[in-house]
Design a protein that fits this description.
Helix content is 49%, strand content 12%. It is an alpha+beta fold and 81 residues long. The protein has a domain at 25-70. The strands form two sheets. The chain has a two-stranded antiparallel sheet. It has a two-stranded antiparallel sheet with strand order 2-4. Helix 1 runs antiparallel to helix 2 (46-66). The chain is elongated, with a radius of gyration of 16 Å. The N and C termini lie far apart (38 Å).
């Protein structure tokens, strides 16, 4: 089974954008978990929360890089010659 990419490199800047429903699900799930954790912040250990969110960001970056068609690098957009 061929590798299906969920993200494409951004035209400007660094990183990737969702291009399939799978990519959008990953992005939406990440946002939902961050919002959920932010709303349960009361009486929480802030250091533990920062570690959890940092870990989630690293997971998102890893999955996104693995499922991106092409490499991540700084881009200035398409040049017209």
């Amino acid at each position: 089974m061929p590798n299906k990419y969920w993200f494409k490199p951004k035209l400007y800047g660094y990183g990737a954008s969702s291009t399939t429903w799978e990519g959008w699900i990953v992005t939406a799930a990440f946002i939902a978990v961050v919002i959920w954790r932010a709303t349960t912040l009361e009486n929480q250990n802030h250091t533990q929360l920062a570690i959890e969110l940092g870990f989630l960001v690293l997971i998102l970056i890893y999955v996104t890089k693995q499922k991106t068609e092409g490499e991540w690098k700084w881009r200035w957009g398409k040049r017209k010659h």
